[in-house]
Specification:
By secondary structure, the protein is α/β, with parallel strands linked by helices. The protein has 9 helices and 17 strands. It has a 9-stranded mixed beta sheet with strand order 3-2-4-5-1-10-11-16-17, with helices on both faces. A 6-stranded mixed beta sheet has the order 7-6-8-9-12-15, sandwiched between helices. Helix 3 links the parallel strand 2 and strand 3.
């Protein structure tokens, strides 16, 4: 299927109950500027009608929606967005309200905030809102953006629980169905800062065809046609490719025992690097091996001084 929409998944910086870890930050307002001038601006640039795009901020995942929603609205408006509103969906019945569905129908961009991704999928999954969301993403010039829980829930397979410290003990990582905008990947967030690589390893070794995506804070991926991925933001994206795993003890050990994995491939992307989900080929934008490298006079003078 030729997907018409764009997916922007962001590693987040404010966590209000995702997974089972306790180190959550309660100062939501003071952390909202972590991507205001970078990733949010990119969302506007990619949006149909740009500053005039109709943007809905969806706070379903959050335990403090009345705090988070207005902060996103303020951030977008500071960047010049003229048509931003907040949509609170707190019960499944809200997701079948004709007025709510009409707002989604008219939206050019939706951004799902952080919080608890299991709350997000349990409220929206299988509703008329969910069906319309998928239809718009597949068939319209439409952006689904999600940060933290909103990013983790975007894929078909969703990590919803598992501490970082015990992630490579069999059974410690819990996976369920997400919103299903993209298949063949599993997404983890706050990735570098919270040392979550172990749980992405476990998610991938259980089904090596699935590509693990670990998003650092203030970092995201812009995905077009569910194939072309571009790293955006200031941090790192870690990709875990299990297709060439040679051996593991996954099925031989008991629950709670350590997992061994032989030959798990990882890639690290930073801003403007790309990855093709069809060919599994990564391109480093500023590769030191690229042909026709451009050097400034300052670079040349510096090289002469060193030598």
């Amino acid at each position: 299927m030729n997907i018409q929409g764009k997916l922007i998944i962001i590693g987040g910086a404010v966590n209000k109950g995702s997974f089972s870890e306790k180190n959550v930050d309660v100062a939501a307002e003071s952390n909202m500027n972590f991507f205001e001038t970078g990733i949010l601006r990119r969302i506007l640039l990619e949006a149909k009608n740009q500053e005039n795009a109709r943007i809905e901020v969806i706070t379903t995942a959050s335990k403090i929606p009345k705090v988070i929603g207005p902060e996103y609205k303020k951030a977008f408006e500071c960047l010049g967005a003229k048509n931003v509103d907040v949509l609170h969906l707190e019960k499944r019945e809200n997701a079948t309200d004709p007025a709510v569905l009409e707002r989604l129908k008219n939206a050019d961009v939706v951004i799902f905030t952080g919080g608890d991704q299991l709350r997000l999928t349990s409220i929206l999954g299988g509703t008329a809102f969910h069906d319309l969301l998928l239809d718009k993403y597949q068939n319209e010039d439409f952006i689904y953006a999600g940060t933290s829980a909103g990013a983790a829930a975007a894929s078909n397979n969703m990590i919803y629980q598992g501490s970082s410290s015990e992630a490579l003990l069999k059974g410690e990582v819990k996976i369920t169905s997400g919103l299903g905008l993209i298949d063949g990947v599993v997404i983890d967030t706050h990735f570098v800062q919270r040392g979550r690589i172990g749980r992405l390893f476990q998610a991938v070794v259980g089904n090596p065809r699935t590509l693990g995506i670990g998003l650092g804070e203030d970092t995201g991926l812009l995905i077009k046609n569910n194939i072309e991925m571009e790293a955006i933001g200031s941090g790192l994206v870690i990709l875990v490719d299990g297709r060439d795993i040679k051996d593991t003890n996954l099925t031989q050990v008991e629950l709670g025992q350590p997992i061994s994995i032989n030959h798990l491939v990882t890639h690290v992307l930073s801003i403007n690097d790309t990855f093709d989900l069809k060919t599994f080929k990564m391109t480093i934008k500023s590769s030191q091996y690229a042909e026709n490298l451009v050097f400034t006079q300052e670079d040349i003078d510096s090289e002469k001084t060193v030598n």
